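Section 4.2 – Deliverable D4.2 (structural model, holo form)

The reporting period included a commitment to supply a predicted holo structure for the target in complex with S-adenosyl-L-homocysteine. Inputs used:
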Amino acid sequence: MERVRAKKQLGQHFLKDESIARRIAESLSNLSHQLLEIGPGMGVLTKYLIDNKNYDFRVIEIDSESVDYLHTYYPTLNIIEGDFLRMDLPQTFDNKLSIIGNFPYNISSQILFKVYDHRDMVVEVVGMFQKEVAERVAAHPGSKTYGILSVLLSAYYDIEYLFTVDEHVFNPPPKVKSAVIRLQRNGVQHLDCDEQLLLRVVKTGFNQRRKTLRNALKALGMSLDHVPENLLSQRAEQLSVEQFIEITNTLSAV
Ligand code: SAH
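Output (structure tokens):
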């Protein structure tokens, strides 16, 4: 019973459909010489990645039972047993890195925030998420699903929604549909603003996403006097990253 409950928290939904596993592996472009798979489980996706000589390939898996299984069936695989969220990426990899996986859905946002934090290293992500998260990440301004991660990630990545995956191709089937997205690093090195403040502005704006920014941004405790009226009268979900940058710069100028 304990074991079942513990496993449930690992977001384990194993992919049964080989053709989908292959399609995910093939969605990876050749942007980096280092590849990390998060949560390989029983290796359904791993087997389509392992023989590629273009990459230094490693996997990170938290579940010891899966790690034992992988050691047995993929003896040459470079396996790191541990939690991706605690992994020190700059310590483990030298510079450019691609990430792939049928990700544990319970930590989807945390994986994506970690990618954002390591945007100088992570050149590509190909991953399966629950459909709602995938849509949110790939959303454009004005759509209901547009949120913090869409704004932040779209500043540094070109994001594509690749395909939707039915719940019945997993064991056990999750309650929701899934989708595969691809993030490829664009050429932007730095945004033209105080990025710490930008993060606060975006988070504060979406915290009360139904309110206009005039009201939502009061929580910043800063004067909004210099922010253009046409931006303050909109809601966070209507603004592009460039407009958030504009707001940030008018706040910093005070
Ligand atoms: N890729 C496999 C398994 C997907 S299920 C497949 O497609 O069948 C998600 C996997 O992520 C599980 O194996 C789970 O044990 C692992 N996992 C969960 N949390 C993790 C974490 N924080 N770090 C690394 N792996 C994790």
